[in-house]
Amino acid sequence: MPTSNDPRDNELAAQYEAYPYPERNPQDETRRLLIGSPSHLREIDYWVFAACRSRSKALRVLVAGCGTGDGAIMLATQLDRAKRAGEVVCIDRSKHALAIAQARAETRQLTNIRFIEGSLTDLGPLNLGLFDYIDCCGVLHHLPNPAETLKNLTHHLAPEGGMGLMVYAPYGRTGVYMLQDALENLTPFTETPSVRLDVAKRIMRTLPATAWLRQNGNFGDHLSGGDAGLYDLLLNPRDHAYSIGSFLDLLQGAELEPTCLMEPARYDPALFLPDPKLRKRVETLTWREKAIVAEALTGNMATHVAYVVKKGEKKSPPDHMDFDAIPVMREIPGVELAKQMQTDNTLPFAFGTLIVPVPLPPQARGLLPLIDGERSVRQLAAILETRGVAVEKFKAIWQETFTILLSLNRVLLQSPA
């Protein structure tokens, strides 16, 4: 494990060698595949390539800071299951983390993934070449110079390529930084990881009832994630959170622009503001201002997940009203999503710890089970016409249904074969 002149960076390296995050057992790959964002294959097809790139084209992927491999294993598995050509190149400087990720890949018998030990702050000597897609999830906020690293990653993007990013957000992590400050005084980062972890565990056993972390329900994955989860949450020596405004500024500095903030609807405050006068005020705001207001109002965004491309390379996806377009469910089958609709035709949607009832057209209940990634909009219209829904009426239903469910990242458009 190389050392640098940055004591915090050395402690960070020691942390992930001692407690690779997230804590994973490779044998669990025999019974489940962890799904998330970014780097879901259907999301990449739509949000990066605007559902215009042929699925027959090989996809070259870099996972920049793969840790124990959640995103890499998900994407490599999805490529393999879809029989799509491609390679997932995983880089991390932790031998221990890479070993776990590699063992997970071996359990799944994945042949489209490889692992390289290396640092994101010194990619040059690795001669990696260009990538169609780069995943950098949960990494930038731990680096000594996130802006410089993001710029360097941008240089490794192939033309018309894009990235999936995740960074911590401040308001949804209320309570974390207070405890981090307390623990840095109680157990400085110059102490060994095992000593620091012991102190953190003792603190958690007797944490005062008034501690803000006790009021925050956003950390099930960390607090139930074993030693690695607790260490990463409370003892990480460098943990910089980005408000949505500062995150967009970071992208701007790297000459990147977002194609999607995940899920898009959570960044529209109108979703949480039923008052008509307030909604009118929201309508006067810019897209950036809306996102800032939504983050401040909800207070529960613990991360920001985004798909981004180089400035000037953002494409418009096909028109979802084109009768030749083929919609596809992102992950949850349409029949299951329809079952979640309430009697008042609302879909309860969880934005983290906030549940919002999202209204859908009543006919969406029968329409959703028909979306299978093969039927075109024309075919959907024809089926509903046999059920008494005229084509013009179908168009209005489809416009509303698709627009809402796209904003929830539940329905996308299929890329060409």
UniProtKB/TrEMBL annotation:
List where this protein forms a coiled coil. none
The cross-references to SUPFAM superfamilies, in alphabetical order and at most eight, read: S-adenosyl-L-methionine-dependent methyltransferases
UniProt KW keywords: Methyltransferase, S-adenosyl-L-methionine, Transferase
Determine the domain of life of the protein's source.
Bacteria
Q: Which residues form the signal peptide?
A: none
**A molecular-function term among this protein's GO annotations:** methyltransferase activity
Locate the Methyltransferase type domain: which residues? 63-161
Instruction: Give the Basic and acidic residues compositional bias ranges.
Output: 1-11
Q: Where is this region: Disordered?
A: 1-30
Q: Which GO BP terms apply?
A: methylation
PANTHER family the UniProt entry points to: METHYLTRANSFERASE, UBIQUINONE BIOSYNTHESIS O-METHYLTRANSFERASE, MITOCHONDRIAL
Q: What protein name does the entry list?
A: Methyltransferase
- The source organism is Acetobacter indonesiensis
